[in-house]
Amino acid sequence: MIDFKEVFTASMILFAVINIIGSTPVVVSIKEKVGKIESEKATLVAMIIMIGFLFVGEEILNLVGIDINSFAVAGAIVIFFIALEMVLGVTMFQGEEPETASIVPIAFPIIAGAGTLTTLLSLRAEYHLVNIILAIMINSLFVYIILKSANRIERILGKNGIGIIKKVFGIILLSISVKLFSSNISLIL
Fold first, then answer.
1. 109 preceded by cis ω (within 30°)?
2. What is the DSSP letter of 36?
3. Cα 52 to chain center, whole Å?
4. Model's pTM, two decimal places?
5. How far is 188 from 68, CA to CA, in rounded Å?
6. Is the CB of residue 22 less than 8 Å from the CB of residue 169?
């Protein structure tokens, strides 16, 4: 059942977690190194990864005996640390150097990274599947637009503007992680 409030809320959560605007400096830097990023390919692959994990992720958890509420609590903790990185400007998680830019690292892990995949399964604990899929599609459209105009956005916002956006989304993510943690921890205990 489509619920526009759920679609909007899930879209905002995913938008904050994916943080494609905050990733604009990274995208521009990668684009300068490799010459061109295939925006369509990166967006499509990221969307397939997200929707695929939305369906298969829970089955994988069931195979190893983990319920979705426990995963949501773990996801809340991961999201909390990602948000701390954004707010404090420190790097806790280390990545590897890219070999192919459109798929790695743009589609995965910049767009559909650990935080995004964790968030998707956490959202399954609270929202209807169809609403989450619509939220993924909406975010994929935003991702595509941002990837296509990354250079222009960086020029318009500047380094300070992108830094401010990153911190604002970091605070939103902190709030989301606290909500996910508090609403799922009681179901486990």
1. yes
2. -
3. 15
4. 0.76
5. 10
6. yes
Q: How far does Cα 129 stand from its chain's mean position?
A: 17
What whole-number distance in Å separates Cα of residue 178 and Cα of residue 172?
10
Angstrom distance (rounded) from CA 54 to CA 117: 8
- Return the domain boundaries, the chain: 4-188
Extract the tokens encoding 14.
């995913």
Q: How many CA atoms lie within 13 A of 152 on its CB side?
A: 5
Tokens 């599609």 belong to residue:
137
Ordered per-residue pLDDT tens for the chain, 189 residues:
899 999 999 999 999 889 898 788 778 777 777 778 899 999 999 999 999 999 998 788 889 998 878 877 887 887 788 778 878 887 765 554 444 678 877 888 789 977 788 889 889 888 999 999 999 999 999 999 999 998 888 788 888 888 888 788 788 878 878 888 898 898 888
Please tell me the distance from the alpha carbon of residue 1 to that of residue 144, in angstroms, as a whole number.
27
